[in-house]
Each structure stands twice: as C-alpha cells, then as structure tokens.
C-alpha cells in the first residue's frame, strides 16, 4: 500500500505511520517539523524495513500542498490511502472572549488544510478508480462542549465533509471514512494550552484516556478491510468517557 499521512510528527499521525510500517508498504509522512520527520523515517526504515518519504508541509499552504501532490503523483503513480490527520485546537475560551487569531489557525488547518490536501490528492485516486481517504474528526465534531466553540465547529465541518466526500467520490470507487476519537493523550492539549504542560496534564487527570496507538489500530482496521467494505464513521472514546445531556445554567 502507498500511504500518505498529514501531521505525522506526533500523536495519531506518528502512531499511524508506525502501524502501517510493514514491509510492502510505502509511507509518505508530512508535517511542519522536519527534524521529527527525519527521526521517524530513520527509525522506521532501520527497524521496520519500509520505505519512508518525508516532506515538510504546512497544510495551510495551498500552493505547497498542490506542488507536493504533483510530486507524489510523479513518484508513486498510485496512492492507496490518504490520512487527513493534521489538526489542532488552540485555547478554550467562551465565545465572547475567544482569540480570533486562534480561530483563524484552527479553521485554516482543520478545515481548509484538509480540503486543500483532499483536492490535491483525490484526482489521483479518481484516475486510478480506487483509494481510501480517512479523515480524523473528533467527538467534538459530534457533540459540542462548553468553550469548544470554534474547535468543535471545525470538527463538525470535518464530519460534514466526510459525508459529502463519500457521496462525491462514490462513482470512482473511493472509500471515505471518518474516525472520531474522544479524549486521547497526545501533544494535543500541550498545543491547545500553548505549552502549559500542567494544564495539559490536568485534562487527563483521574481517568485513562485513549492512546495514539488505539486510534492507529482503528485506522489500520478500516484501511485493511476487503474492497467492498467501507466503514463510514467510527466514534471511539476511552471507557471512562461518554456523551452527556444538555447543560443547565442554575
Ligand atoms: P498532536 O498535537 O500530537 O499532533 C498534531 C499533528 O498535526 C502534528 O503532527 C502536527 O505537526 C500536525 N499539524 C498541526 N498543524 C499543522 C499544519 N498547519 N500543517 C501540517 N501539520 C500540522 O495531536 P493529535 O495527534 O491528538 O491530533 C491529530 C488529529 O486528531 C487532529 O486533527 C486533532 O484535532 C484530532 N483529534 C485529537 C484528539 C485528542 O484528544 N488528542 C481527539 C480527537 C481528534 P507539526 O506541528 O509538525 O506540523
Ligand atoms: C479532541 C477531543 O474532547 O479534547 O478532539 O475536544 S476533545
């Protein structure tokens, strides 16, 4: 399989790269941090016997995304799996106090970045009449939570895009799967709270959150089913998390 992953420098993306690192697979891993990409490539090529290509990529850079997709097309000719994983939350404020620059970054990355990558790679899948796109959504894209406002909105958008992409790409035999994780301990909260590790750790205090590897296992399962089977949507929480009822202000 030829597998292209965005946001592979940490968390889910890195775990997904590691999970798919088996002989016979070729990985193309991307993210903004070049040093991390090189370290992952070295590890996987030396220890897992796979070929790993790395490209620094900011998914918000439309021209860079299009140029990289051209390179992928020339080098690989075919692509089996695109994992749209790059994304982030920034801050957790009530709507009237939100940082509008943070809003821009979340929308540009989680929604527009995912769109740019999909727009650039999907034609290759259409031409080959096969392929699989896995979008990493969130439980935050299923049920909104207090102070989640814009992050939740971006993940609701990912949910809507996954649904419509599946319909649009149906004639071309392309699968689209949305994986919606609940709380998982990655670098997500460190990023959200802008390097405040104490605050990040508090997010996962008192319960056992998901691990990145749990989500990688789910992605691997969805991606290795027979050609006629497409998981549309998978919502995964740790055992100690569940949906809640409407909040009341007393
Ligand atoms: P991490 O912070 O560990 O990983 C995020 C990844 O996204 C990094 O590799 C980062 O790479 C990359 N990224 C961020 N911005 C950009 C950008 N502009 N261009 C390219 N890559 C970018 O968090 P997670 O692994 O937890 O997050 C992965 C995805 O999962 C995100 O979409 C997140 O919203 C979603 N998610 C996370 C959950 C959680 O609780 N952890 C639950 C549900 C969904 P780099 O900084 O090198 O560019
Ligand atoms: C990440 C899960 O609940 O921290 O998408 O927003 S949550």
UniProtKB/TrEMBL annotation:
Keyword Oxidoreductase listed: yes
Segments crossing the lipid bilayer: none
A GO term for molecular function: oxidoreductase activity, acting on the CH-OH group of donors, NAD or NADP as acceptor
Record key words, sorted: Oxidoreductase
PROSITE patterns, per the entry: ADH_SHORT
Family membership noted in the UniProt record: Belongs to the short-chain dehydrogenases/reductases (SDR) family.
PANTHER family associated with the record: ALCOHOL DEHYDROGENASE
Protein name per UniProt: NADP-dependent 3-hydroxy acid dehydrogenase YdfG
């Amino acid at each position: 399989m030829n597998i292209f992953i965005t946001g592979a420098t940490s968390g889910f993306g890195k775990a997904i790269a590691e999970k798919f690192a088996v002989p016979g697979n070729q990985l193309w891993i991307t993210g903004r941090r070049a040093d991390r990409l090189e370290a992952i490539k070295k590890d996987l090529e030396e220890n897992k016997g796979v070929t790993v290509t790395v490209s620094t990529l900011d998914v918000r850079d439309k021209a860079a995304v299009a140029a990289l997709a051209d390179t992928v097309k020339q080098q690989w000719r075919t692509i089996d799996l695109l994992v749209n994983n790059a994304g982030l939350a920034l801050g957790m404020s009530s709507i009237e106090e939100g940082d509008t620059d943070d809003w821009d970054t979340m929308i540009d990355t989680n929604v527009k970045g995912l769109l740019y990558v999909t727009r650039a790679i999907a034609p290759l899948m259409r031409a080959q009449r096969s392929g699989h796109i896995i979008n990493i959504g969130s439980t935050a894209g299923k049920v909104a939570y207090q102070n989640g406002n814009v992050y939740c909105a971006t993940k609701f958008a990912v949910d809507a895009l996954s649904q419509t992409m599946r319909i649009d790409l149906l004639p071309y035999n392309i699968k689209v799967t949305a994986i919606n994780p609940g709380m998982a301990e990655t670098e997500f909260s460190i990023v959200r709270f802008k390097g405040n590790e104490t605050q990040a750790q508090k997010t996962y205090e008192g319960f056992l959150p998901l691990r990145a590897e749990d989500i990688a296992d789910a992605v691997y399962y969805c991606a290795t089913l027979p050609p006629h089977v497409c998981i549309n949507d998978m919502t995964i929480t740790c055992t100690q998390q569940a949906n809640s009822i409407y909040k009341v202000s007393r």
